[in-house]
Amino acid sequence: MISRLLIANRGEIAVRIARACRELGIEVVAVHSTSDRDSAVVALADEAVHIGPAAPRCSYLHVPNIVEAALRTGADAVHPGYGFLSEDPDFAEICAAEGLTFVGPPPEVMQQMGNKATARRLMADAGLPLLPGVVEPVRTAEEGRAIADRIGYPVIIKAVAGGGGRGMTVVGRSADFATAFASTRATARAVFRDPAVYVERFLPSARHVEVQVLCDAHGNGVFLGERDCSLQRRHQKLLEEGPAGHLPAVQRAGLGAMAVHGALSVGYTGAGTMEFLVDAAGRAYFMEMNARIQVEHPVTELLTGIDLVREQILVADGRRLQVRQEDVVPRGAAIECRINAEDPARDFAPAPGRLDVLQVPDGPWTRFDTGYRQGDQVSPHYDSLLGKLVVWAPDRDQAIRRMDRALAELRVEGPGLHTTVALHRALLRHPDVIADRHDVQFLDRAMPELIARTASLAEDPGLAVPAARGPLQLVRPPTPDPPAPVRPPQERTSPMPDPSFTIDDLMDLLTQKAGLSPTARTTDPDARFSDIGLDSLAFLSMQTELQDRYGAEMPDDSPDRYTFGEIVATVTGATDSAGMA
Amino acid sequence: MSTSSTTTAPAPARHPADHAGWISCPACGWLLYRKRLDRNLRVCPECDHHLRLSARARIALLVDAGSFTESTFAPGPRNPLSFADLRDYADRLQEAARRSGESEAVVVGTAAIGGTGTVVAVMDFGFLGGSMGVEVGRRVSAAADLALERGLPLVTVCASGGARMQEGVFSLFQMARTSAAFARLREAGLLSVCVLTDPTYGGVSASFATLASVLVAERGAHVGFAGPRVVQETIRAELPRDFQTAEFLLGHGLVDRVESRAELRPLLTRLLALHHGPAPTAQAWPAPPPPLPTPSRPRPDLDPWDVVQRAREVDRPTTLDYLRSAFDDFVELHGDRAFADDPAVVGGVASLGGRTVVVIGHEKGHTVRERVARAFGMPHPEGYRKAARLLGHAETFGLPVVTLVDTPGAHPGPEAEEHGQSHAIAEIIQRSSRLRVPVVAVVTGEGGSGGALALCTSDRLLVLENAYLSVISPEGCAAILWRTATAAPTAARAMRLGAAHLYDAGIADAVVPEPPGGAHTDPDAAAQALREALLRQLDQLSGLDAAELLASRARRLSRIGGDDQALRAVPTVVPWES
After folding, report:
1. Which candidate in A16, A145, A292, A338 is catalytic?
2. Is the omega angle on the peptide bond into residue B412 within 30 degrees of 0, that is, cis?
3. How far apart are CA B477 and CA B459, in angstroms?
4. Which of A64, A90, A222, A455 could make a disulfide contact with B31, Cβ separation 3.0–4.6 Å?
5. Three-class SS string for B215-243?
6. Which of A425-455 are b and which e, b meaning 16 or more Cβ less than 10 Å from the residue's Cβ?
7. Testing the interface with A: which of B36, B260, B328 to mutate, by most A Cβ within 10 A?
8. Under an 8 A CB cutoff, do B33 and A94 touch?
9. What is the pLDDT, as a whole number, of residue B350?
10. How confident is the model at residue B421 (pLDDT cuts 50, 70, 90)?
11. Contact yes or no for B355/B537 (Cβ under 8 A)
């Protein structure tokens, strides 16, 4: 039985997982980097552990600290969310070795699905249709050209280790193959440190359709309908919806059954997604499997009423699936818009900053998943996803109108902050999107037009219904409040100065918060962390405490840099200056 | 001091977090999951530090799976001095054998790398710091002899602190023994490649380790004669951060290449295939293309000044462009093995229509940054010495040479003079005039004076349509004779710059056609034309033996500037028949 779960992630998905845990009665351990110390999930969690500086490689990707945090806090399970370590088989394996339940598929399966060539071979073995092409890496340009000539142009050269739209090149004719092959390999080597590439047929006007599957460890699996994610910019999804209404219901059911069969054939457990490309004639080809919860999972949740994260945790805990295929009845239509802190006008450059205003839309069947609150800082260290706006309606037309209404209600403001809100509104007004006849290249084609449209929408962010004569006032208008950041009340007291802070106080603090054994206490001001057997994790715990209690912290997160005397001096020094100010 | 090693490998500092599953990177301290580190060939994914490998791990990394057969050696006398320090040397040997699992600091055998059979000798730093005593010397020499006996190439992986102190002067003489063995290999035309790994020092680096035909240093490896501590204590100076690293060696022209661990096997595969691959067969390679329909005579209507400007066009394909587009494979070899790697001259081993050739050429680069870095294609003496060394490589392995000429001239500057520019140019002209393999020179762009002629002494001279050879730049000529550089176009015409004159004067054997408007308008077509011209010339020359080549090359040089008759018409002695 999972009773305490560590969330090895941040942002909206960390909050999402924490909520599912709360509802299941599971205690939540959050981990956070220095820059996320005041994030929403930290406030939600039963316990929070500072695992390192802002750079992900030192915190959310740093396995030793995360595993140590889980062990120290007595967590018995780890949920990796998406991104970061979610598809790292080593991490899954290490968790298992340390006795932690990993919420995800077994490491071997994750390894297989993570290698696209292996995944495609296994799925081909399971009878899933693949695009004409090769499954194994292509070694030389001549070999690749021979394959391309055989399967017919246009072809796409893709990095085996690729993703995120990088390391792929479309080739239109045989003569261009060698150059494209060399440059794709060079990119793959530079970006993914693996030059291996493969070649497959490129479908010029295809749709991206993915099936959500859920499997338990007892060989049962169901599919939870599909999502259409064809609105992608350079292979980055921007807007997802369900169901894939352009496909007949019987074909969608066929695709779902195929996806479950494929997942079960490799021993997959947990929530996963099978991605397909569907060509203009409606033929589906397996692309890859994502062995994790996905960003766009709420689309499926709204369509089916099934809490995916909850189910994911339960099957990880060894439970049998309670959902049978016949219980899964997708209803209506759902749309998700990814609200990113990016500036579409500047080629989607990240535009982070402080969220002076964050007003979340509300109303019927309107959901906003975010890890940010008004007043928070959007950090440049992490992905630019501010939140996900998801709506449900009985049909697609209503869902589009509801989404547009909700987007108009959403207010995100701050210095230097730009978002994709207006772009989404422009997108939902485009005739091809309204008619559901766009394909995966649509966004890249239509982007200039959409950006132009976005500019005019951004100038008038309000609703399309103007108040013609101004507001009617029956009473004196209240004086407007300054836009002070609104924060949920914190349990902690605010930092209090303590000029009398001594090394004994520091030892007390370390005993309480960093697991310092009473026998290892020292009074030597020249001693350091290593002298009393404490490590960097203990140091980070101390940092958090010093910040919370005294408003002080050491400038560097490295424990070996400071003697205890220096730490005490910093606390009292900081207190002095605070007292004078 | 410098030729000896400490008796034991320095015990690696054990990080408290070290346990079965995790290892701390010795360079950056990052905690690494051991399995991931192993998958990454024991290269730290955080800082790219290449952790040391045992000899067995090296062999597994480099050779085709299952192809390694170890050579066994009868035990020899092991303790010639009956040496004992704090412990008996015999004890130390036993301990080293137990800890490393090897009987000595080098493992020898035969294997295949990318399908090419080869002898391998791999040192193990874990055995007494890879130090070279009598047995290591014997095994390394035996590896060379085995290669000689079987006609195979030799790949050596070095990791050594130097000569072994416990065997005294006997160790020292292993330097001579192994060096001689490598010389026999070279005389027999068999390729030897040394992979220099961290660390290679002292008596090993000053003998066979740096005597192979191709030297490849693994990224970050420290290689040198005297260890940095010895150097620092002796001269008491601050050493540069990268002192004696692989990258430092490359910058100083001392190794041919620096490769990351993952790139070593692919590189060895290519090198072995280029030097010892299966001989090309008619089936494996397309027949040489039919003669070009385009006449190899120049278009007479080209204005010399237009030719000069097209030859200098920034986008005109350079040697490296042609190596990528006109040749099938190319492994660049860097450095003059003495002082520097001149980026204005590039060279290496290439494959062209199934034939392996040595290619040397001037390199200008295209962007401003590249052009500055490559000194606009103006070589220093180090560039010519690199070229001369590569000519030697070609002769050793019987490979034809192709030179691509495109330079404003040799670098004019005080350093170039200090380092002997004149002699370096003279030397390479002389070397190429007597080289015992075919040489085809192609003027691809500017042919500025002696700096260009250095690569023009050949059996065949080809010239691209918009290329020229000149005794001085048209601007220089105009400034001297017309007293203004603005007369350069007039000077260019007066000097008859261009392919037409070279062809008519009998200096160029053929003109390589360019796309209309110049090579830069369609680099691929230009490369194709060059490729076909080269294949034709190499085909013609391949039938000639060394004596015929040398004789015809000498005749060719005497003919230039007036035929033999004209020269004979000015006799210094009265011919007896008259």
Report:
1. A292
2. no
3. 29
4. A64
5. EEEECCCEEECCCHHHHHHHHCCCCCCCC
6. bbbbebeebeeeebbbebbeebbeebbebbe
7. B36
8. yes
9. 95
10. very high
11. no
Q: What are the backbone angles phi and psi of residue B60, rounded to the nearest 5°?
A: -60, -35
ipTM above 0.85, yes or no: no
Partners of A377 in the beta sheet? A354
By the 8 A CB rule, do B249 and B255 touch? yes
| Angstrom distance (rounded) from CA B350 to CA B270 | 10
CB contact under 8 A, B33 and A90: yes
Report CA-CA distances (Å) from B77 to B92, B163, B203, B438: 15, 17, 21, 49
Lowest mean pLDDT among A195-199, A207-211, B181-185, B539-543: A195-199
Asked if pLDDT for residue B436 goes beyond 70, the answer is: yes
Question: In the prediction, which pLDDT does A475 show?
Answer: 65
Contact (CB<8Å) A90/B35: yes
Q: Spell out which residues of chain B touch residue A97, defining contact as CB-CB under 8 Å.
A: 21
Sequence ranges of the domains in chain B: 52-275, 304-559
Residue A231, number of CB atoms within 10 A of its CB: 23
DSSP assignment of B2-23, as one string? TTB--SSPPPPPPPTT-BTTEE
Reported as a single tens digit per residue, the pLDDT across A75-94 is: 999 999 999 999 999 999 99
Q: Which pLDDT band holds residue A540 (cuts at 50, 70, 90)?
A: confident
Tokens linked to A349: 């450059």
Verify whether the Cβ–Cβ distance B17 to A90 is below 8 Å. no
Q: Is A292 a catalytic residue?
A: yes
Return residues 68-127 of A near B (CB < 8 Å). Answer: 90, 93-94, 97
Q: Decide if domain B52-275 falls under CATH 3.40.640.10.
A: no
Please name the residues in contact with A172: beta carbons below 8 A apart, sequence gap of 6 or more.
Answer: A153, A154
Residues of B in contact with A57 (CB under 8 A): 46
Confirm whether B52-275 and B304-559 share one CATH topology.
Answer: yes
The CA distance from B187 to B179, in Å, is 12
What is the pTM assigned to this prediction? Answer: 0.77
Chain A residues with CB-CB distance to B22 below 8 A: 64
| Residue-level pLDDT at B18 | 44
Please answer yes or no on whether B21 and A64 come within 8 Å at the CB atom: no
Instruction: Identify the bridge partners of residue B163 per DSSP, sorted by sequence position.
Output: B4, B132
Nearest chain A Cα distance for residue B497, angstroms: 35
Please name the residues between 321 and 360 in chain A that touch chain B, using a CB distance below 8 Å.
Answer: none
**Contact between A288 and A262 (Cβ < 8 Å):** no
Helix-strand-coil percent breakdown of chain A, rounded to 5? 40, 20, 40
Cβ contact A94–B21 (<8 Å): yes
Q: Which architecture does CATH list for B304-559?
A: Alpha-Beta Complex (3.90)
Convert the pLDDT of each residue in B26-49 to its tens digit: 999 999 999 999 999 999 998 999
Asked, as a colleague might, if the bond just before A431 is cis with ω within 30 of 0, I would say no
Q: What is the pLDDT of residues A313-345, one digit of tens each?
A: 999 999 999 999 999 999 999 999 999 999 999
Strand B154-160 relative to strand B192-201, pairing: parallel
B21/chain A closest Cα distance in angstroms:
9
Rg of chain B, C-alpha, whole Å: 27
**Residue from A68, A94, A537 to probe the interface with B (highest B Cβ count within 10 Å):** A94
Q: Which of residues 42 through 71 in chain A touch B, CB cutoff 8 A?
A: 57, 63-64
Residues 549-568 of A with CB under 8 A from B: none
Question: pLDDT tens for residues B5-27?
Answer: 333 333 444 444 445 689 999 99
Contact across the interface for A94 and B17, Cβ inside 8 Å: no
Whether the Cβ atoms of residue A90 and residue B33 lie closer than 8 Å to each other: yes
Closest CA to B225 of B213, B207, B211: B207
